[in-house]
Amino acid sequence: MKAFLKNYRQSPRKVRLVADLIKGNRVAQAFTQLKALPRRASGPMEQLLASAVANAKSAGISDTDLYVENVTVNKGIVMKRSMPRARGSASRINKRTSHIMLTLIEKNTEKKIKTEKVTKKEVKKVAKQSKPAKETEVKE
Prior knowledge:
Number of strands: 3
Strand content: 25-35%
Number of helices: 4
Largest sheet: 3 strands, antiparallel
Radius of gyration: 29 Å
Distance between the termini: 79 Å
């Protein structure tokens, strides 16, 4: 399940610090990390995670098996402002925005049974043993 947050008014560099913390975690663990984090981006990221979980529930997926698969933070529009400087000049201020995409994945907690790998040599040995010996006809 995916959820998007477009034109969030904070620099992508700062938002990526929060996004990297929750990547690969269970949803419940990601919520607790975001609540305890003293960063400005943690609040909107928590709302985005809640939105993704709601999308998963509406699709019929239980939230106990959900993991944060990926969080991508791309740059959005840049609003350009000017600040007056000395001698009548001005310098530019870039007000950056972020586009955030959060992807959840469902992982089953069941353990997979390991299958033994069979080498080619073992296959040939078994094939030789299972072949019936050629019968020679005795002519009388």
